[in-house]
C-alpha cells in the first residue's frame, strides 16, 4: 500500500472558507494559522456555518500582521492581530476560555455577514484549550477547531461514498468534492475506509496519533460555493456509516512531533493499526 499526501488545507477563521496549501508547519494545536480566529455572538458563544451557512462565502487571507476578509457583497477589511492586552470570555462547544477581541470595525463587518450582532476574536494563546481527555493526553491542545488539531480524509473513501450516493436516493447531488468535509490533510492510496483502523501515522517527518473518527454534522450538506443545502452526504452516510447514533467520515489527528513541515506529495506511512468495527468513537 503506497499512501501519499495529496491535499493540505487551512481554515484561518472557523467556519469561513478554507485555502489549499502546498506545505505547512505542524504546531501542537494544528497547522500554523489554522482556526486561530472565530466569530462569536454577543454572549461569547461560537457561531458557525451550521447555523449561518453564508459564513462559508467569506474568504479569509492571512497577511502580514493580521487577516484580510473578503465577501462578494461587502468591501474587504483588514484586521490586525490583537495584542492580547484585552481578553473576553468565549465558548467553543464545551470549552470555556479567553480570546482577544479584534475590535469594533471587525465586529461591524462580521455582523453584516451574519445579519445579527457578532464579534471576531483571536486565540492569542493557543495553549488555553485542551482536547477531550477521553481521546487525548493532558498536554494535548487545540485551536478553535471543533475538537482536535487536524482532520484527515481519504480520497479513496470519498470515491466509495460518491459511488454510494450515485446509487442512492439523491444521485443528482453527487459527486461531492472533498471540500464538503473541510479536512486538514487528504491522502490517497488505501482501500476505502481503511483509515478507520489507523492509529499512528508518519507524514513526511511528522508523526500523528489517529485518536477519533469524525461524526459529521449539517455543515457537510452545505454547498461551500453557494451556501445552499441538500441531503447529501448525510443521507448516504446514515445508511452506510452509522454508529452510536452518528454518521462518520474522516479521522481526527493529534501531532506527536510538532515543529515539522509537511508538503503535498509527502509519503504517508501507517505505523500502527487496529482492527475495529468502524472508526474509534
From TrEMBL:
Residues 260-281 are annotated as: Disordered. InterPro entries: MoCF_Sase_C, MOCOS_middle, Pyrv_Knase-like_insert_dom_sf. This is MOSC domain-containing protein. Residues 270-281 have a biased composition (Basic and acidic residues). It holds the Pfam family MOSC_N. Residues 124-271 form the MOSC domain.
Amino acid at each position: 500500500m503506497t499512501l501519499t499526501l495529496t491535499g493540505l488545507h487551512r481554515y484561518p477563521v472557523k467556519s469561513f472558507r478554507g485555502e489549499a496549501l502546498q506545505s505547512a508547519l505542524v504546531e501542537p494545536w494544528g497547522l500554523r494559522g489554522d482556526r486561530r480566529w472565530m466569530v462569536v455572538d454577543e454572549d461569547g458563544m461560537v457561531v458557525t456555518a451550521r447555523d449561518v451557512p453564508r459564513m462559508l462565502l467569506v474568504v479569509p487571507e492571512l497577511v502580514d500582521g493580521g487577516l484580510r476578509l473578503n465577501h462578494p457583497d461587502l468591501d474587504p477589511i483588514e484586521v490586525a492581530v490583537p495584542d492580547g492586552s484585552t481578553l473576553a470570555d468565549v465558548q467553543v462547544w464545551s470549552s470555556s476560555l479567553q480570546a482577544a477581541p479584534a475590535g469594533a470595525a471587525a465586529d461591524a463587518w462580521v455582523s453584516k455577514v451574519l445579519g445579527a450582532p457578532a464579534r471576531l476574536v483571536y486565540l492569542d494563546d493557543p495553549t488555553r484549550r485542551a482536547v477531550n481527555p477521553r481521546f487525548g493526553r493532558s498536554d494535548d491542545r487545540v485551536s478553535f477547531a471543533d475538537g482536535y488539531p487536524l482532520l484527515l480524509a481519504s480520497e479513496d473513501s470519498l470515491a466509495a461514498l460518491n459511488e454510494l450516493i450515485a446509487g442512492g436516493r439523491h444521485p443528482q447531488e453527487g459527486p461531492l468534492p472533498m471540500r464538503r468535509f473541510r479536512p486538514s490533510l487528504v491522502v490517497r492510496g488505501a482501500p476505502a475506509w481503511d483509515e478507520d483502523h489507523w492509529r499512528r501515522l508518519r507524514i513526511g517527518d511528522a508523526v500523528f496519533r489517529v485518536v477519533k473518527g469524525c461524526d459529521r454534522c449539517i455543515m457537510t450538506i452545505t454547498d461551500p460555493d453557494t451556501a445552499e443545502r441538500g441531503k447529501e452526504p448525510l443521507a448516504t452516510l446514515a445508511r452506510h456509516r452509522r454508529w452510536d447514533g452518528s454518521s462518520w467520515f474522516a479521522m481526527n489527528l493529534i501531532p506527536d512531533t510538532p515543529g515539522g513541515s509537511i508538503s503535498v506529495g509527502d509519503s504517508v506511512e501507517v505505523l500502527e493499526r487496529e482492527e475495529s468495527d468502524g472508526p474509534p468513537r
